[in-house]
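User: Quick sanity check before I run a bigger batch. Here is a single chain. Can you write out its predicted 3D structure?
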Amino acid sequence: MESLTRALRSIHERHEKIKHTVHTAWRYPLPKWGQYAMGCVYFTVPIVGGWCVMQWAISKSVDEIGARGEKLRHKQLQGYGNKTVIDGREEKIGAGGKYGGVNLAVSGSSTQENNRIMLEAMFRKERKKREKGKQQNEQ
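Assistant: Done. Predicted structure follows.
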């Protein structure tokens, strides 16, 4: 255990020494354009990195469940809000139910159906808008 502690301390000390050297010996003030450029770099790198991670996650999602959920085993929601199906029985979960927990937002099956209909209408509208845009671009 002592050798591990000593090794970690040594790594930490060398890292601090390198940081000190980089931030003191090799550093000189940047001109205004350099400060602007570095600000852009420090701003855009996390944005582009996050975008890439999201694109990867979307592609994995499509691979796993399909573009419109066609690969899902259960296509209909089992239970809703604070209810779920466990071993074929509908049970309450969350506060006051099985497994304790917090109060969950509850929406009935009619609300879920209305939301599904509105979501499908929105997707249909967006699809038409994209198709219209493609047709205009082709002309």
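Residues 56 and 71 are 19 Å apart (CA to CA).

User: Great, the batch can go ahead then.
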